[in-house]
Amino acid sequence: MYKICCALFLALAVAGPVAFGSSNLRTRELQGCYTCSGNDPCEEESSDYFGHCDKHKFIQCSNGYCNEFDCAGNTVWDEDAERCDYDDELPPCEGEHECENPCTQDNINDGVYFHEHCDKRRWYLQCASVGVCYEMRCDAGTMWDDEVKACDHV
After folding, report:
1. Domain ranges within the chain, ordered by starting residue
2. Residue range 44-65: average pLDDT?
3. Which residues, in sequence order, are CB contacts of 143 under 8 Å at separation 6+?
């Protein structure tokens, strides 16, 4: 028995790692996009983050288990930073006029949440902290004044 164990140990030591089929994630190179139900990127004992096929989601591996999460608000997964971050292409503001979205990361970091409307003086744009933009209407008898960043009496 001792000779068999030693021979097996020696054979494994010389041959290196052995692949036991395509399910051994350590031996295959992962490609494309990932989902927990499709191209699962999680290895045993892995605690890594991966981008999901849907750019508004990401995968966290924990002890070999695959977990899918949504990015908050208007953010997308940034593979290099391994976190959700603002998309370079912000969607238009929510409303009937589809103004360009001014709710950039820089404006939000600077605390600039109110902006001039793209079309109407009785309207303005308001940003939420996650990069979402809303069209808002000034009260009756007021118009947007971009110098004071508020609706002001006419």
Report:
1. 31-86, 105-153
2. 83
3. 121, 122, 151, 152, 154
